[in-house]
Amino acid sequence: MAEKSFKYVIIGGGVSAGYAAREFANQGVKKGELAIITKEAVAPYERPALSKGYLFPEGAARLPGFHTCVGSGGEKLLPEWYAGKGITLFLSTDIVKADLASKTLVSAAGDTFKYESLIIATGSTVLRLTDFGVQGADSKNILYLREIDDADKLVETIKAKKNGKVVIVGGGYIGLELSAVMKLNNLDVTMVYPEPWCMPRLFTADIAAFYEEYYKNKGVKIIKGTVAVGFNSNDNGEVKEVKLKDGRVLEADIVVVGVGARPLTTLFKGQVEEDKGGIKADAFFKTSVANVYAVGDVATFPMKMYNDIRRVEHVDHARKSAEQAVKAIFASEQGKTIEEYDYLPMFYSRSFNLSWQFYGDNVGDAVIFGDNSPKSDNPKFGSYWIKDGKVVGAFLEGGSPDENKAIAKVARVQPAADSLDVLAKEGLAFASKI
Ligand SMILES: Cc1cc2nc3c(=O)[nH]c(=O)nc-3n(C[C@H](O)[C@H](O)[C@H](O)COP(=O)(O)OP(=O)(O)OC[C@H]3O[C@@H](n4cnc5c(N)ncnc54)[C@H](O)[C@@H]3O)c2cc1C
């Protein structure tokens, strides 16, 4: 079996890998020095498109339209771009063994890859109901969404089950985005989740009430406070019914499960320090092993603003952490230093005609402002989170680019707030003053 050596290797070919590759090129990586090894069959792309434009019934997004780094307004890096820069892409290559001591990776096909510096960018994998032993969870047409192959399976199944019934298990951002796009595909959609409201990790009850009502007005049915405990299938092994813990049974031609993800760190277990479920990294994304970096979903890193250590599963951090790691690698080779990573958390989502952004920390007391009527033609509302007399987080639905910038600034600056009432009254005007 072949052995190949590179100065730099990135394991994983997702969002972080694409942004890292661009930064390597900016830093003047030489031809033949960098390889990206990924089990996906395509060059790095903007993963968030998979639960949005990729599933549209008309005018759907397709590669090469959403290769990185187009999602942040940058150049679309096509396979030819990598070839032109002398960056080797090993596609459809699953690394099954990593030995950090001997700086060696081994693929499922038995090929060996040697490196001087490694960037771990393996991202996350979905949690599967089969992992929890849910009865019938291995039936056909119970689907998940992480990679482009999963999205292709979803597209095929949507076509095969035209006007059918879909049950979405999970009320997080995957559940919300998929319910919306399934509805756009004219399917009969029911969402099921155990929490009292959707997206409870971020949304307050007030924020969630808007989205739940908006979705109901679009014809999405929502069942809260219970979970799927089993599935019945037909003679072909295709899912037909979802059994809920509260005794109800829902008909289903398709089930899409979005109940969370876990970082892919297994290959490195026992070889590198971990913290909070991820690979522990410093402000330059260096791990506890020399010349090994971890970025994106797998990295647990110092969140300077909050004097805390966190792991973040969002695309903005995947992009920025990758760029920081590559800058740090080149700086250390030149005996220079760069500034510490000082990340302001940023999450966003889009569904139907809605689009929200959130910046900062959702801790303390929250106050809602603006027009949050689900019947409104152009709803625009937001929320501030206040802790110890300071505004620490800000959410905005329907904001313009300038308005989103203004709420980002609030979360970064953390201005003092006199009272929740004043914030509720001033709304966006408060952000515009900062
Ligand atoms: C459907 C979907 C929608 C999303 N929407 C949003 C959104 O709207 N907003 C937001 O902020 N975030 C969103 N996210 C989250 C965001 O996409 C991730 O945080 C981001 O992709 C993380 O980047 P990453 O490079 O760490 O991992 P990934 O982009 O997941 O890339 C990891 C890569 O590593 C490869 N890999 C893993 N293990 C191996 C191995 N052993 N050998 C070879 N290759 C391997 C994988 O195949 C994959 O290509 C979404 C995620 C999904 C799945």
Automatic annotation (TrEMBL):
Family annotation (InterPro entries): FAD-oxidoreductase/Apoptosis (IPR050446), FAD/NAD-bd_sf (IPR036188), FAD/NAD-binding_dom (IPR023753), FAD/NAD-linked_Rdtase_dimer_sf (IPR016156), MDHAR3-like_C (IPR048618)
Cofactor: FAD
Keyword Translocase: no
Top-tier EC class: oxidoreductase
Catalytic activity: 2 monodehydro-L-ascorbate radical + NADH + H(+) = 2 L-ascorbate + NAD(+)
Family: Belongs to the FAD-dependent oxidoreductase family.
Protein name per its UniProtKB record: monodehydroascorbate reductase (NADH)
